[in-house]
């Protein structure tokens, strides 16, 4: 019967081609797996065998087995021993028998006993069997080293010639070493260094330092002249970071750190270098491209090693553990660490786009909270610079994330300077919820089929030119970059507000609260509307608690009104309590202390009264104008100028406030200055009499503002202000006329230096006779010994 045919079809050639690579890979994998498993089993067996051999070699021999015998057997043995001819044996044979009896247990064993001889007999037999199976390693003779000589050419061909290298015996070598030992010790004995004086040591140190400086300068100039060709010299320069000469070690290391920092700032490209993939490495490229790749790879590796050296220097100083091989003393660690931190700060600011920038951020941020004041200030200053110059927001986002993690990990016990650095963020707008127009799909360009179907030939031509122009306009606008920037800014502010809200919730009595309130006041217009109600409640509780300082309460008021002046306009919230609190606490400012809080007061007044003019009543505005004018009498000159400038703006904003310049009272009641409620203190029944006092102020600008307000603050005419004063805001005027330098601003005019006029005698006299007498006496050459005025007086009247 013929064999049954298989119904399976033979695979076609094309199918074999498709699956052959997969099958080959599977076969290779299976083969590798089998080889690995076999090798693993072999290793296990070898390990067990070695362990068994080591156990057998180190095992101590078991003691001889002894069993108690019956008394009858003992009597029989004694009788048998008595019958033995012991006297016929020699002493040597007897001792040998006794020794054998002690070594072999089976000689003394009682065969009638049923006790087992060894419990591990079978296991030991297996071990011995395995040991027998192991191949023996025969001692091989040492292969003799051959010396190849010149070959010999014969009829048959070239015959190679070799010779055995002569071997010197060890014994002879040792004898020779012993024989020449004394002489060698005398020759190779190190000579003691000569003792140098202090002056000689200074000269020696200066000489060595000059040599190192020349070497650093030569390496640096060669790298900067051609970075791609001399990139390997970076390693040579970096090796000087571990200078071992104790005389110049500290100085040389500092110089090398700073030199490498400047070199990297110059040669680092303006883009981030990414590692090459396996496919890119395997492909063939041009010679120039290969050189560029080698340069970038070497630059990144050397930059990485340099940062690791700087980090290790800072860690050594923190731990204060001296290494055995280090020649630098513990006192010098601080100076090295300061230079290392300075280099890290420079690289943080100069290379925010390059590799390992996040690693530098992780190193710098903890140093902002360090106990060393100098290192903490350097780190905070570098972070502030980074925030100010970062236009896109990528580096700022990474920095804010690390700062937020630091504050949370330290349980909000960090220096206020850490959070004050966040005030330098360049965030002015964030993403808001998109409208229906923004969500609508963008205009799509027509493809070729649609154009051919719906447009004529001339229309297609015009359409093509129009689309090209639109694409160029889109590229010019850089909309993608703007969207990316908004996204980064939004994420950054979310992390900042998260940190602020955590401190407000969990650490209200922390030293970080003033920084939090100041930050909220600056970024309040960017807070999401969903948090407004809760935030205002928290701020009001803080103000009413009385635990805050005056500056902190001002920040609370400023934050609340920034929230309400932005997106909070749609909320129906009356901040009357905040108005009352500011009106009540205004008179705390005086000239006895520095008026640093005055600038916050001026900002609050601008937000509360000027920007919210529609929500402010006339009574409230009049009360604030009167209270501010009273305050201007007891503060420093620059604060007075800022207050009067604010009053000028309020008088323009609320035209009905001109009743304060009239002496006649209007309405019922009298003015109650001690009342803390601005709505009910009857400010319309008083006048700004303080302006007349300010007209006699010693500061010229104060006198100008007082005279300007008395006549109603006109914009034109004789009572108007100069353009320089009228166009500046109150805060700008406060800063311009500051007296922080303990000088008058503007300076006091010096008196004019006029020469004294000479007194011309006689010209001013009315009597001509008296004038003649005086002239005659002045012209006389001789001087009278004594003058008789009575005689001369009589002669004149005769």
TrEMBL record:
Q: Where in the cell is it found?
A: Nucleus, Nucleolus
Q: What family name appears in the similarity comment?
A: Belongs to the CBF/MAK21 family.
> What PANTHER family does the record point to?
NUCLEOLAR COMPLEX PROTEIN 3 (PTHR14428), NUCLEOLAR COMPLEX PROTEIN 3 HOMOLOG (PTHR14428:SF5)
Predominant subcellular localization, coarse grouping? nucleus
Nucleolar complex-associated protein 3 N-terminal domain mapped to chain residues: 212-306
Which residue ranges does the record assign to the CCAAT-binding factor domain? 553-706
Q: Where is this region: Disordered?
A: 31-88, 167-190
Q: Which SUPFAM superfamilies match?
A: ARM repeat
Annotated coiled-coil positions are: 455-484
Give the protein's recorded name.
Nucleolar complex protein 3 homolog
List, as start-end ranges, the regions of compositional bias called Acidic residues. Answer: 73-88, 174-185
Alphabetized UniProt keyword annotations: Coiled coil, Nucleus
Q: Where is the composition biased (Basic residues)?
A: 39-50
